[in-house]
Design goal:
Blueprint: H1 2-20, H2 27-33, E1 89-94, H3 101-112, H4 117-130, E2 132-138, H5 140-152, E3 157-161
Antiparallel strand pairs: 1-2, 1-3
Helix pairs in contact: 3-4
Length: about 180
């Protein structure tokens, strides 16, 4: 008797489970479902391109966990340094018929900073007589600063490499040299 009751309970449970499945709602499905046996389908995901939307791309993953060390070979390379020294540049003052001697002397002293009145006067006389005179001979960066300073004062000035300089006033050096 207990055996019949337990079989009856199992049958009731199975019928309730079948009642909730969407296939079991149709009468034809109830008839065929009792006769067919389904085998489980095994789905496999693969990155090898065998299907499943993985593309055909293989991803190589490092199986090693933890820290990894990157080794960079450092080679000491020495840059070739030029043996030629930096060339000197001349600051050249050009003659103009606008400014007075006193104004030019004061402007030279103000911009150069190291010229006394005598040197500044000598530069003015050479400029007036020959059309141009060397104010100073120095490195290019400093020569550009002096030239801009003189131009801000309204004077006509330029710079030129000392070794390629042609013109008057070679003996009228002043300033820092």
């Amino acid at each position: 008797m207990q055996m019949i009751q337990s079989l009856f309970l199992v049958a009731i449970c199975l019928s309730q489970v079948a009642a909730f499945s969407p296939v079991a709602n149709t009468p034809a499905a109830q008839i065929t479902s009792s006769r067919t046996f389904s085998t489980p389908t095994i789905l496999r995901m693969s990155d090898s391109g065998g299907g499943g939307g993985g593309g055909g791309m293989e991803k190589a993953k490092d199986k090693k966990k933890g820290l990894s060390t990157i080794v960079i070979d450092k080679t000491d390379t020495e840059m070739e340094q030029e043996d030629t020294p930096e060339e000197m540049w001349r600051v050249v003052l050009h003659n103009d018929e606008v400014h007075t001697f006193n104004y030019v002397i004061r402007s030279l002293q103000k911009v150069m900073g190291t010229l006394d009145k005598k040197k500044a006067f000598d530069i003015c006389t050479v400029t007036h007589g020959q059309g141009q005179a060397t104010v100073d001979e120095c490195w290019k960066e400093q020569a550009m600063k002096y030239c801009l300073g003189l131009q801000r004062q309204g004077l006509t000035a330029s710079i030129a490499p000392a070794n390629k300089f042609e013109g008057g006033g070679n003996d009228a050096g002043g300033g820092e040299s």
